């Protein structure tokens, strides 16, 4: 059976139409694929631009943070500098006041009056500034002038020169002024010798002194001279109240005892004792250990020798002073000799 020509035409048209549809679909898919790729490229470029902007902003923020940190650091440094300056000024003022107190203490301990003198005509005069500063009553009498013959010129001049060098800044006197000590009329004979004894310089700092004596009288006399001048610590097995009744209350005491109470310490706890000493010590401070024989009994000689060696090194490093009274008869010759090797001996 033959298919009519018209049907062939219809089939052909349908095939052509189908091919056109397929072609259109392919073209549309290609276009969609190209558009998607283009969109992705645009998105990538957009993200890259955005990332660059964020990097720029981040860099600017970092620079700003760095600048702020530097400004804050500079501000803190400036504040610290101001604090250091203020502290130094305060220390300077405190040191000046301390030196004035020292000088006033020297005057209070001397049975004498310190005065400027016009040497050409031997006329004694006291400046108003001196009286106002020291608030010391000053009188000049014929008797005091007559006592000049009792003055050892060399000793007096050396002592006065030292005072001028040390205290000229706080006294406000020109260095060129000449000063001397006028001895009161009642200072004669042994009294005057006692006065000269007071003019002797105190022992140097940064040194440990072993004072050999049966009773620690000389040791405490030396220790007491520093009480008005600096911070002092007494380590003892004696009754603290008895010590304070003699030497006052302006120094610290650690009582070595097995009794637990305030400011007491076990004599066998050397580590804690060393920590307390190390915490106390600073430049110029003074320490007396009036218990060396007791510590040896409670521990042993070798341990206490090592303790003294370590402590002496600390004293040198801190430029402080250590005073250790010891009864020579309480130790054998070798033990005493080993201690003497570690410290300066005062007999």
Describe this structure as you would to a colleague.
The chain has helices at 5-109, 128-134, 142-146, 153-171, 189-198, 217-226, 240-247, 270-280, 292-298, 301-318, 333-342; strands spanning 112-118, 123-124, 179-183, 207-212, 232-236, 252-256, 264-265, 286-290, 321-326, 344-346. It is an alpha/beta fold. Among the domains are: 104-198, no CATH class; 207-346, Rossmann fold. The strands form two sheets. Strands 7-6-5-8-9-4-10 form a seven-stranded parallel β-sheet, sandwiched between helices. A three-stranded antiparallel β-sheet has the order 2-1-3. The radius of gyration is 46 Å and the shape is rod-shaped.
CATH superfamily of the domain at 207-346: P-loop containing nucleotide triphosphate hydrolases
Strand order of the largest sheet: 7-6-5-8-9-4-10
**Structural class of the helix and strand makeup?**
alpha/beta
- Portion in helices: 55-70%
The oligomerization state is: single chain
CATH topology annotation of the domain at 207-346: Rossmann fold
| E-strand count | 10
The radius of gyration over CA amounts to 46 Å
Determine the number of helices (DSSP H or I, runs of at least 4 residues).
11
């Amino acid at each position: 059976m033959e298919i009519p020509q018209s049907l062939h035409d219809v089939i052909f048209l349908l095939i052509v139409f189908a091919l056109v549809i397929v072609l259109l679909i392919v073209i549309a898919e290609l276009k969609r694929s190209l558009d998607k790729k283009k969109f992705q490229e645009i998105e990538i470029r957009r993200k890259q631009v955005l990332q660059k902007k964020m990097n720029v902003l981040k860099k600017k923020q970092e620079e700003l943070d760095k600048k702020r940190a530097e400004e804050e650091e500079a501000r803190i440094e400036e504040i610290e500098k101001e604090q250091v300056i203020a502290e130094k000024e305060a220390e300077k003022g405190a040191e000046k006041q301390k030196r004035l107190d020292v000088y006033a203490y020297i005057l209070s301990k001397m049975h004498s009056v310190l005065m400027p003198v016009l040497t050409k005509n031997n006329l004694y005069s006291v400046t108003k500034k001196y009286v106002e500063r020291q608030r010391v009553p000053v009188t000049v009498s014929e008797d005091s002038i007559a006592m000049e013959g009792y003055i050892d010129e060399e000793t007096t001049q050396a002592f006065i020169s030292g005072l001028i060098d040390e205290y000229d800044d706080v006294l406000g006197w020109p260095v060129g002024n000449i000063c001397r000590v006028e001895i009161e009329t009642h200072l004669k004979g042994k009294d005057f010798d006692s006065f000269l004894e007071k003019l002797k310089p105190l022992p140097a700092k940064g040194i440990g002194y072993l004072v050999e004596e049966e009773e620690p009288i000389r040791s405490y006399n030396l220790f007491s001279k520093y009480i008005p001048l600096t911070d002092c610590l007494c380590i003892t097995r004696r009754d603290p109240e008895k010590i304070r009744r003699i030497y006052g209350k302006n120094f610290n005491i650690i009582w070595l005892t097995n009794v637990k109470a305030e400011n007491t310490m076990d004599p066998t706890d050397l580590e804690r004792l060393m920590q307390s000493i190390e915490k106390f010590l600073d430049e110029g401070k003074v320490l007396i250990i009036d218990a060396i024989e007791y510590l040896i009994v409670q521990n042993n000689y070798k341990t206490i020798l090592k303790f003294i060696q370590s402590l002496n090194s600390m004293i040198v490093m801190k430029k402080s002073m250590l005073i250790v009274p010891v009864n020579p008869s309480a130790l054998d010759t070798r033990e005493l000799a080993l201690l003497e090797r570690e410290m300066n001996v005062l007999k």
